[in-house]
Amino acid sequence: MQSLWNDTDAARCADELELRAYSSRLLGREPALVLHGGGNTSVKLRRKNVFGEEEEILFVKGSGWDLESIQPAGFAPCRLAHLLRLAQLETLPDARMADELRGCLTNPAAPAPSVEAILHALLPHAYVDHTHADAFIAISNTPGGEARIREIYGDSLVVIPYVMPGFKLARLCATLFPRHAHAGTRGLALLNHGLFTFGPDARTSYERMIELVTRAEDYLAKKNAWHLPPVAGSLAPARSLRVGLAELRREVSAVAGAPVILKARPEEEFARRPDVAAISQQGPATPDHVIRTKRVPLVGRDVAAYAADYRAYFARHTAGKLTMLDPAPRVILDAEFGLCTVGRSAREAGVVADIYRRTIDIIQRAMALERWQALPEGDIFDVEYWDLEQAKLRQAGKPAVFAGEVALVTGAASGIGRACVEALLRRGAAVVGLDVNPAIETLLARPDFLGVRADLTRNDEVVAAIEAGVRRFGGLDMLVLNAGIFPDAVKIADMSGDFFRRVMAVNLDANLALLRECHPLLRLAPHRGRVAIVGSKNVPAPGPGAAAYSASKAAVNQLARVAALEWGSDGIRLNTVHPNMVFDTALWTPELLAKRAQHYGLTIEDYKSNNVLRVEITSRDVAELVAELCGPVFAKTTGAQIPIDGGNERVI
């Protein structure tokens, strides 16, 4: 493993705490060391208190902060003397420990200290680093793991057998570290858990971590267990998987008790190993992963059997005082679907994917070295149902209204379509945005959005876009039909058949194809499917010169009404909004707006609010109505047509 230390960057740090944050970020940038909030770091500094007295403060990574992006504010300042006194106690219940850690903060507004704060305090070094390095775990989690660790590191590390993280681990280290440490000790090896290094300065502690991990990697390479066979190419199987994935997502959602995102990686060859049913059921790489991945993945698609096994696992280890988490899998290994990961949001599903992808490499290296062997299930259960984790669940707020749900929006690159994307994202949905404009692919860089460039008049591109969306998020709950064209005014007497057919192809035929292709997915939506159509004032009140546009919008309106009748038995509801004069779209250039206002003898501002209520209609106004139509307020409404035009005299 290569060191990322840069003297120039380090020299820019104003003080030791900034340097602590800098070296922590170096660790966090390497997924083979820590992932998504894993690991922790600390520094011991002297600070003056309110009485002007100097006292030693342990700045340790705070809860909720990620090493990859941590800043000085992410370190919790704890009075070192108090932590050292806590370490002398024989026992300390987890809940009381959390209270004591909060109580020793010098700043009550700081984040909660890491549960390993007492262990960091015990180590007599200024800087302490802790990671869950893949190479170390691959060696440690084998039947001969401890012997191999001692072979690699000799007496340069104090080897600590696995115990529950937190106070129990701190107490064990308080006993073993003074007994075995010496002047050449460079760190701790926590079996089945991770590595600790330390030093008098940030660089020493960081470089020691890189050195120790590199020694583990070199050992695996020497044993022909480091370089894994190449994974199959990134091209997923050509066969359509979308309906099967949507069915699986619906079953998982039912067991989870809420809609979930299901992220599929069909190219993952590990799922097709002949021994996958055995090696995947040993347990997670490190106990803390169970919070994200559960103890074992589901192999195959029998969600009900997995849930029954999970309930039995819970019953084996609980004394009846705990609240069982939902029994749905978070990782699914299937020969056809590859690696599927589950979360209540796209971000959660992505975190699970990142963790289990690293776990796959760890397992395969352990198998190449000797044999994969995780901790007993009782140890994993203790972490999964840790009092501190249960407390987090009790404190969790109410999920967003569309949490775990998936929407597809057409014409999503600008105007009303983009506003619909943003409205749905704000409500917790994952969104697939389609547009003919290639800019859609880079519109938003976030895990809950997938932009796909697609010409909606080409059925093959529509099908491919839907398939991509389902592979990313698992299914479809909401469809927003927004894309359309508003051509230049042409009177009927002057209209060619080609002109009329081009408008119909975009505004009508494409929407028919989308409805047809999305229906099998919408009927599998955990909370029933919803469709919102962005229509037009021209449906009830057409204007001269807009025959093709008005006819196409009227046809889509009728299509939606018939679909509402046909799909009601599937629980799918379809509703239409009819906006008018939405000026913050690409259609309305400043020149066109000025020309139209002048035509009516109005100022631009008066023209924008030329309706009964004298209000301007924006893309966001339309999008908010669309989102609400997909929400619980309209759960018993279908086939409705709702104007959003400020009141149009011709419509009224």
How do the strands and helices of this protein lay out in sequence?
Elements: H1 7-11, H2 16-28, E1 40-48, E2 54-61, E3 75-79, H3 80-87, H4 94-103, H5 117-122, E4 127-131, H6 134-140, H7 145-153, E5 157-160, H8 167-180, E6 187-190, E7 194-199, H9 202-222, H10 242-256, E8 261-265, H11 276-279, H12 290-293, E9 298-299, H13 303-317, E10 331-334, E11 338-343, H14 346-369, H15 377-384, H16 387-395, E12 406-410, H17 415-426, E13 430-435, E14 449-453, H18 459-473, E15 478-481, H19 497-522, E16 530-534, H20 547-567, E17 573-579, H21 590-599, H22 604-608, H23 619-629, E18 641-644
Parallel strand pairs: 5-6, 9-10, 12-13, 12-15, 13-14, 15-16, 16-17, 17-18
Antiparallel strand pairs: 1-2, 1-4, 2-3, 4-7, 6-7, 8-11, 10-11
Helix pairs in contact: 6-9, 6-14, 17-23, 18-19, 19-20
